[in-house]
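S-adenosyl-L-methionine-dependent methyltransferase, Ephemerocybe angulata. C-alpha cells?
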Amino acid sequence: MESAYFDPYDFISDDSSNESVSEVQDEDYDMASSAGSDGTQSQGSGSSASSGDAMSISDVASSFQEKKNRVFSPRPRASTMSSYSYHSSEQFRTPSPSNQSLTASMRETLYREEYGRELNTFSDVYRLPADEEEIDRLEKQHNMLVDIFGAKYPPPMGVALRQGHYEPTKKVLDLGCGSGAWVKDVCRDFPYCEAIGVDLVPIDDSDPDFPPNLRMEIDDLNKGIEHFYDSFDVVHSRLIAFGIRDYRRLIEHMTRAVRPNGVIEVQEYDFRTYTRDNKLIPANTTDPLGTYPWWATFLAHVREGVAKSGGDIRAATDLESWVRSHEALTDVVYRDVYLPVVPGNCRRYQEDVYTRMKDDVMAFLRSLKPLLMGSGVSEQRYEYLVHHCVRELHESETPQYVRMQCVYATRRPDVLLEPLPPVE
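C-alpha cells:
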C-alpha cells in the first residue's frame, strides 16, 4: 500500500535513470549530500531542462492569475503506516491559545502596504510580502521541493508520531509556517496528531479541506516560544532566516519545545550562489554590475538587505555545528541540497521541475522589492537587476545554484535543560 512517509535525504538512485540522462549526470551533479551520521552520499536522477520562453517580471502577475490552470504535484494520499491503527481513542483537542490566536477584529491590523505589496505588521525584521501572491508562491515552492527531495519528512518523524493507546496525543509545531503547506500535509498524513503553525500572519482556514487537527498562532518568533516548551513530538522550520535575529537562540528554543525522543528539523540557505561544481560565486554589491552573474549579484543584494533588517544571514552556515554540538540532541543527520535556481543546461530533474523553478524565481524577484528598496536600493537599480536576472534565467546555459542546508536530530531523553536566560 502507498505511504506518504519517505526519507527526504535518500535520493533516487541513478540506476533508475534512462541512458540519455545518465550520460550527462557526471558533468552536472547539482544535488550534493555531505556525510551525515552514516557517512554516505546519495544522488538523484532527472531529465533534460527546458530553455523556457523569455518572460518579463510583469508576467508573474498574470501567471499568478492562472493558478487554477497550472499543474501541481499530486496531493499525497493519507499515509497507511500500520502505526495508525494504534491511535488513541481520544478526540482531537484544540490546544488552548498560548500567545495570540487570530480573531476577526485583528485582521485589519495584520498587514501594511509597502512598494505595492502587503507586509506583516508584527515584525520589522521579516520584510517579504504576506499577501496572496506570496502565499501562492510558497505553496508551489513546497510542492516543488517535495519533488526535488523525493520526500516530505525525515525518517525519525514516523517513529516520533507513532500513536500508542495510552500515550499523550502526538503534536507537531511548524515555526514560520508561511502558506501552511508543510504542516497541512502533516495533518493529512498523520491524522491522529495535533499541529500548530506559527507565523506573522494567519493561514487561510476558509478552505473546506483545511485540516481539523491544525491550529494557527500569530506570533513573532524573535520574542521566544517558552509557552511551547516540552509540548511537541516534532518541531520544524524551513527558510525563515529572513526574519530571525538570533537563529542559534531559536535552535535552543526548538530543543526545549520538543519532547524526549522527539525530532527537530531545520532547513535554510545561506543567501549565496554556487557553480555547477558547488564552488562559491563571490558576488557582492560593490563591484560594477555585470562583473558576476546577475542572479549571484542580485542575491548578494538580498543578503545585504536581510542583514540590514536584522535577519541572521549566517544561520544556514552554522546549523550543523549548532545542532551537532548541542548536549540534548543526538542522531544528527546533515545534508546539502543544491537547487538549480538558474537551470541553464542542468539535466538533473524532470523538465517540469525546471519550469516550476523558473516560476518560483520570477515570483521571488517580485517579492524582494520591499526588502531591497527598504534597505536603500534605488528603484532604478532594483529594476535593472531584475531585468537582467530574468534574461539570464531564460537564456543562460550556465546553471547557478543555491545551497539548501538541511539538518534533523532527535531529542535525548536523559538530558534536562535549564530555561534560557533573558535577552539582554
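Residues 1-102 have pLDDT under 50 and may be disordered.
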